[in-house]
Amino acid sequence: MPTFQIESQFQGPVGGVDEAGRGPWAGPVVAAVAVFLKPPPQRLEDAIQDSKKLSKTKRESIFKSLHELENFVFAIGKASVAEIDLHNILQATFLAMRRAVQALPFAPPTLLIDGKFIPKFDGIEVHPVIGGDGKSLSIAAASILAKVTRDQDMEVLARECPHYGWERNSGYGTAEHQESLKKHGVTHHHRKSFAPIRALLNPC
User: CA within 20 to 30 Å of 25's CA: 19, 81, 137, 147, which one?
Assistant: First the structure.
């Protein structure tokens, strides 16, 4: 269960950073940064978990509550499919994270970032937290913000390209998505640098 234990080790506001969408075959990668200036109500604190452990309904409910919360600051950053294909998914994820932090109204002195590999930020102390969305409440909140935002983006793209089931699979390489790729081909929303998509574009 994520707590404020890690955040409490630092002075001043601490931002938690996480991403959604590194693995899918289509769509942007989305990052979020979350800063609790004061702890949330206990009911909300108890509800916040790693987004992957929550149902879609529960994630969306917490997402709404976070938007309405006082003494809480957050921002979203994205990197496009073109940027993913140009830089690679890791560097595009770092780009999205930097954009999220830059979009905050202030720069927190400390950032906790989920994962082993993390970007650098000028003038900000940055700490990697492996499995951070299960340990840090700030990172867990960021994981929910990033995941729901990206799912909403994919639902919009699904209306533009209705054959791929992105409103259900979020662009991941599910059987439904693979079958639709064979039938309808690759769109401009697909990550052409990813091996399964590249193989469709350049068959043996």
Answer: 137
Give the span between the Cα atoms of 123 and 194, in whole angstroms. 34
Which single residue is written with the structure tokens 């001043």? 12
Between CA 53 and CA 178 the distance in angstroms is: 25
pTM above 0.70, yes or no: yes
Q: Name the pairing type of β-strands 29-36 and 125-129.
A: unpaired
Comparing 101-105, 119-123, 147-151, which segment has the lowest mean pLDDT? 119-123
Q: Of 148, 157, 130, 136, whose CA–CA distance to 52 is shortest?
A: 148
The CATH number that domain 7-201 falls under is 3.30.420.10
The residues that bridge with 126 in the sheet, in sequence order, are 111
Using alpha carbons, list the distances in angstroms from residue 44 to 49, 99, 115, 137, 146. Answer: 10, 27, 24, 11, 17
